[in-house]
Each structure stands twice: as structure tokens, then as C-alpha cells.
Amino acid sequence: MSDFGALKDYIKGASVKRLSAVECDPNSSNQHELNGTKRMRGLLGEKAEFSANFIRLEDDEEKIEISSAAVTWYDARESHPKRSEYRFYYQNNPAIELAVAGDPLAVILKNNGQILFVSAPQGSQSELELFELFGDQISQSFKVVDFADNSESLSTTKRFILEELGIEVKADYGESYLELITERFGGFVFPKTKIFSELAREVAGHFSDYSTVDEAIISWWDTEEAMFRQLEGALIDQKLDEGFTDADDFLTFSQTIRQRRNSRAGNALENHLAHLFCEKGIRCAWEPKTENNKKPDFIFPSIEEYRELDFPIDRLTMLGVKTTCKDRWRQVLTEANRIEHKHLFTLQPKISSNQTNEMKDSKLQLVIPQSIHVTYTEDQRSWLWNFETFVSHVSRLQ
Q: How does pLDDT run across 269-318, given as a tens digit for each residue?
């Protein structure tokens, strides 16, 4: 079992509020200032100048904006003997420009001293994520949240949110796979994702070793994640020892790391699902082409039967696969026109009720491993499918 530590291992503290018009609306004020509080001195001191990362979260992940800007923390009434009025003065930047009055803003002080200014649209899924970290009691005055005495283990939901904020979550995996990896692949190299997934299943065990297919999928995924992060860490250390030739070399290496993480995650999950379908004797087409060259992740029982217009529609099933979804769930709605009721498998915890209600209205059934159901509300859990239910569904149709 991996140990990801506690929130205090990553964040020293934070201050959260709802933005007012004079703090973010250029039609109301051009001062680029945020009103602070005396309590924030515990995090920031009496006066400070620093470069901060500004992050604008969006439910459409392609619209997330990240930028850097200089910030000054100061007392606007420093010379007054009895009154203090603490403020942030910030340089304008693309991320903060997207914020509007009423949006939540979190000023996060990481343990390494870096400061993040994170905003999200009011009423969005991204706002719920900030609530998960800092609570939902937010007003137009900064509330200070201190994690120094909070040793609660990092939940799946919080891990997911921290990584979305670019905060690297470290883990004690309890076991090193590097020796096995180097023996199998001849050194610190990444094999094809399918081969890497096969090794993870070899280590984690056959699905028959688990009580449910939900447990098997999560175990395979977690094992591959641990193996991947350990190998990635070894490669990063190796590159740091070699050094970078110039800034372009550093940026290229960083981009390669990000791209590999993103592409591997989705491919690995599909690999494990496809393997389980095969082991269970469930017929399916993996990434077939449907109308307009769309490529759903899985069509059951086959693409040939999907294309056969005489084949009963009620025996066809489509499964989309996304490690995280947010607004991207809508993409699967157009991927198989013959199938009215679609299914989507994801590992994303705590999707908002607004989003799941939209899914219901769009005739999309969410499929989530059982262990993640606890992050959803009681009403949502009564509607969610676990993976065992989905496997039984397609098995029965065949």
C-alpha cells in the first residue's frame, strides 16, 4: 500500500476568499490589488516581494491558464501607528485576467516557499476541488488555513487536486521495482506502454487473485503508477547528473516528461481494461472507427456487428475511457451514433452533482471503480456503476 503522506507535507498553509469587483474587474479598478488580513502575516511575514505562479482552473482542462507574475505583500498603512491594511499588489497576467467577481481565490504557500494564486469559476467542478482542500466557508475576506497540525492521510481526491495544481505528490511505495525493470528492459528505459502494463500485471497478480474486477483494475493501475514514477525518477536523476546543455535542452526534457505522463496514463488504463475483457472472454473492438472517423475506446461485441444495421441496437455497448474527465466527458457522446445510451469509465473522484446530472440527461452512464465511490454523494452513489456491474452487463448481452 502506497503512503502519500499528508497535506501538510506539501502545503504550509493557504488563504482563501471570494474575489470582489475592485480586485479583478478592470472596469471597477485598475490597481491590481487584493485586500489581505493581519492573520496572513503568519504565512507571508510583514512585507515580501516574490514571483508567484497564477493558475486559472477550468472544467475544460484545455482552457486551464498558468502564468507567472511579480507580487508585493505590504501594509498600505505601515506609517499609521494603530491601523494596518495589508494588501497584495500583483502584475497583471493572463490567468488572473480570467477571474471575475465571486470566483474563489486561494493563495497557497507550498513547503518549498513557492506561492500559488489559484482561481476557479464560481459554481464549477474546479471550485469544488478548492473546497475539498480548504473548506467551503468562503467570504470576501481571506480565511487562513493552516495544515501544521493536520496529519490526516492524503486522500485520492486530494492527490488528484494537488497534481492538477502542479504540486508533485511523492509516495513511499514500500517496494522498489527498479531492479526488476532494469533486468527486464536492460536499463533505465521506457518500453512500449503495452509491455509496461503487462509487467505491472505480472507483479500485481492475475484478476482471479482479487475479489472483484474493480480491485484488480485499481491494483494493476496503482502498481504501474508506482513502477512508472520510480523509473521516471531514476531517469530525471540521471539527467540532472548529466546536466543540461542550455535552456532549450531543459524545456525539451520537461516537455517530454509531461507528454509521457499524459499519454501513458490513458493508454495504461485502456491496456488493463482490454486485458480483463480478453481474460473474461468478452468480445470487443478496441479503438475502432465509427461515423466520421470517430474512435471510441471500446465497442461491444464488435465493430462488424456495430456496422451491421440489422444487428439489434440494444445489444450494442460503447465504453469511453478517461483517467480524468471534467468537461471532456462530452467528447464520448458523438463517438458511436447508433448507441444512444453510452458508458464512460474514469478514475476521477468527486465529480460535481451538476456534472453527473448532465451526464444522466445526456444518457451517459458513469462507471467508476468501487473504491472511488466513497468520494461521491449518497445520491450519486445510487446511480453510479462500478466496473463489476459493467462487466456483468456486457457479458449478459453476449
A: 999 999 999 999 999 999 999 999 999 999 999 999 999 999 999 999 99
- Give the confidence band of 253 by pLDDT, cuts at 50, 70, 90: confident
Gyration radius of the chain over CA positions: 24
d(C-alpha 175, C-alpha 229), whole Å? 12
Termini Cα distance of the chain = 36
DSSP 8-state secondary structure symbol assigned to residue 259:
H
Which residue in 120, 118, 230, 101 sits closest to 166, CA to CA? 118
pTM: 0.82
DSSP string, 304-327: HHHH-TTS-GGG-EEEEEESS-GG
Query: Which amino acid is residue 185, in one-letter code?
Result: F
Grid coordinates representing 145?
488555513
**Catalytic positions, written as ranges:** 306
Q: Could you tell me where the beta strands, DSSP code E, fall in the chain?
A: 11-18, 33-35, 48-56, 65-75, 86-90, 104-110, 115-119, 143-146, 285-286, 298-300, 317-322, 342-346, 364-367
What's the rounded Cα separation, in Å, for the pair 271 and 268?
5
Tell me how far apart the alpha carbons of residues 354 and 50 are, in angstroms, rounded to a whole number: 38
Residue with the three cell numbers 504501474: 224
